Amino acid sequence: MGGPDKETLTGSFTAEKNAKIFVAGHRGLVGSAVVRKLLQIGFTNIVLRTHQELDLTRQSDVEAFFAQEKPQFVILSAAKVGGIHANNTYPADFISINLQIQTNVIDAAYRNGVKKLLFLGSSCIYPKFAPQPITEDALLTGPLEPTNEWYAVAKIAGIKMCQAYRLQYGWDAISAMPTNLYGPNDNFHPENSHVLPALIRRFHEAKVSGAKEVVVWGTGSPLREFLHVDDLADAVVFLMEKYSGLSHVNVGSRKEVTIKELAELVKEVVGFEGDLVWDSTKPDGTPRKLMDSSKLAELGWVPKISLRDGLVDTYKWYLENVKL
Ligand code: GFB
């Protein structure tokens, strides 16, 4: 055993703009934001594969890809993701696809000489009743929220795999745990998406059709913390540059709203003038999950995009890009 467990400031990532960097999952919410950010700061050698070109659940294909491409850096943002309903309905998909993707990519990256890998998880890794705000060391201290425990167990395994490879091989694999994300390229599916894109779509469709009411799930009382994905992409680059520690790092906006407050804000931004109706047959999920992001703040990164500005930006993207 051995290897670095100090939170050393590596500082070599953004100095290597020609370095080959593989962004796994570049068509998704997170991966597309990371690619936008890398292009914006001048990276010239970004390697991308669509799902059709490379199925990350197939171990031999992933090994062949890494052996051929030999990227120097990897951002692991490919995952099977979804909102509370999708997590609750497809538990086998959420645990198996995520375990396969991350295990294949992390192991092949290590074996093929990748210098540094960043694994992305989610705030749902923490116990349902973790003390708030949730610090990194709350991991594995209590039972998970049942609606997303399958996804959470896979993501916890990813964190532990990065830690294990660091401990055994001294390999520089780090993990970032973002809070609930939103932004361009989100999934706006009516049932399977997360709450924010679901509400943008539902309020927009109600406005266009002249409906008098919009149904919102649950009681409206759960508290959630939302982070615009461009802020996350900025944090990902920051962590690749500055952080090489054993622990995963929380990435939050440090502000929480109730689902009711969120629904009122989306309603206002979209310009829907009717009423909200609450469907309490739908699950609320965890009552609160505000992350403590002070570790990241101490390292020197804070978010910049307010929820209102981020919502305006995301609704604009929806109007321009989603087939209406
Ligand atoms: O975004 P969401 O599905 O994620 O739901 P979670 C958040 C809250 O919004 C819940 C309520 O209390 C929902 O009941 N909600 C209200 C709605 N209307 C809607 C709607 O139309 N669609 C959705 N989806 N929710 C997910 C996890 O939990 O968080 C994932 O399942 C992941 O694993 C993600 O970690 C970040 O915050 O409850």
From TrEMBL:
This is GDP-L-fucose synthase. HAMAP family: GDP_fucose_synth (MF_00956). It comes from the Eukaryota. Keywords: Isomerase, Multifunctional enzyme, NADP, Oxidoreductase. The gene is LOC104586963. SUPFAM superfamilies: NAD(P)-binding Rossmann-fold domains. It catalyses: GDP-beta-L-fucose + NADP(+) = GDP-4-dehydro-alpha-D-rhamnose + NADPH + H(+). It holds the Pfam family Epimerase. Its EC number is 1.1.1.271. Residues 21-252 form the NAD-dependent epimerase/dehydratase domain. Gene3D superfamilies: NAD(P)-binding Rossmann-like Domain (3.40.50.720), UDP-galactose 4-epimerase, domain 1 (3.90.25.10). The keyword Nucleotidyltransferase does not apply. GO terms for molecular function: GDP-L-fucose synthase activity; isomerase activity.
